Amino acid sequence: MGLDFEIDSETDFFNGLIELQYGQEDLIEMKKLAQKVSWAKGWPVDNIAFWNAEAFMWQQKIEKEKRELIRRELVFLESGNNLDLGCGSYSYIKSVGFDFSEKMLKFNDNCSEKVVGNLEEKLPFDNFRFDSVTAVFVFNYVNNYEFLLLEVKRILKQNGDFVMVLGNVNDWQKQKEVNSFDFVEWEKVLKKVGFNVEFYEKEGLGFFRCINMLKSRN
Ligand SMILES: C[S@@+](CC[C@H](N)C(=O)[O-])C[C@H]1O[C@@H](n2cnc3c(N)ncnc32)[C@H](O)[C@@H]1O
């Protein structure tokens, strides 16, 4: 495929993504265009292609006030070595960023290191490597969430903090959700894997501050 052809298709696909914001897109045409763009092939069904496409406008998709609220709640972790799972193009504190979308990672300017990988699989980090782990607007997209939580416990230092934040992002992303537990159910899941959990709600967002009290079972 010629470079010019790919660039033209990419531009048309971008224009479609902008129209998508206003509900004026032609989805059939966009699916066809996506097939011609290497990083968007299979969009919107393919998960990585879907999130790659979200990357271009992701920083603006969440209101500034919400970002600022979350940043304030996470800032206490700033002095340690933090891993941000499903970091997307926006990490709230300086972190090792982990995501399966290379496009998302490319736009993230708050990472000390960027790691491409899948949250459904064993994480590529040594035991007890991190002082803290964060996951903001992520766990509702993970099938293997119990396994992932055990992985978080494995790579966290003992008494390390895991902070999970959940809440509505917007309707377009809902198509990628694979679970939709409410806050009470999530708290039970976190306790079941052995975290000590403090839960609170602010402005409709759920914050789960978890401490890795027990030794990892892995
Ligand atoms: C809703 S965005 C949240 C991004 C960021 N945490 C924020 O607060 O803006 C979800 C992110 O999770 C990533 N993600 C979803 N499923 C994933 C998986 N199985 N493995 C790795 N990353 C995944 C997506 O690429 C996307 O960047």
Can you give a write-up of this model?
The protein has two domains: 3-43; 62-211, 3-Layer(aba) Sandwich (Rossmann fold), CATH 3.40.50. Helices cover 38% and strands 22% of the residues. The protein is of the alpha/beta class. β2 (95-99), α6 and β3 (111-116) form a beta-alpha-beta unit. A seven-stranded mixed β-sheet has the order 3-2-1-4-5-7-6, with helices on both faces. It has nine helices and seven strands. The chain has helices at residues 3-21, 27-34, 47-55, 58-61, 64-74, 102-107, 145-155, 171-174, 183-192, and strands at 82-85, 95-99, 111-116, 130-136, 156-166, 196-202, 205-211. It starts with a helix and ends in a 7-residue tail after the last strand. The radius of gyration is 18 Å and the shape is globular. Bound molecules: S-adenosylmethionine (SAM).
Quick summary:
By secondary structure, the chain is an alpha/beta fold.
Short key terms for the protein model shown above:
alpha/beta, Rossmann fold, seven-stranded mixed β-sheet, binds S-adenosylmethionine
Q: What is the CATH topology classification name of the largest domain?
A: Rossmann fold
Element-level helix/strand string: HHHHHEEHEEHEHHEE
> Level of helix content?
25-40%
Fraction of residues in β-strands: 15-25%
The number of helical elements comes to 9
List segments where confidence is low: pLDDT < 50 over at least 5 consecutive residues.
none
What is the straight-line distance between the termini? 47 Å
Total strands: 7
Bound ions, cofactors and other small molecules, one mention each: S-adenosylmethionine
CATH superfamily (homologous) name of the largest domain:
Vaccinia Virus protein VP39
The main β sheet shows up as: 7 strands, mixed
SS-based class: alpha/beta
CATH architecture of the largest domain: 3-Layer(aba) Sandwich
Compute the CA-based radius of gyration: 18 Å
Mean pLDDT comes to 93
Number of domains: 2
- Taken from the alpha-carbon principal axes, the silhouette is globular
Neighbour order of strands in the largest sheet? 3-2-1-4-5-7-6
CATH class of the largest domain: Alpha Beta
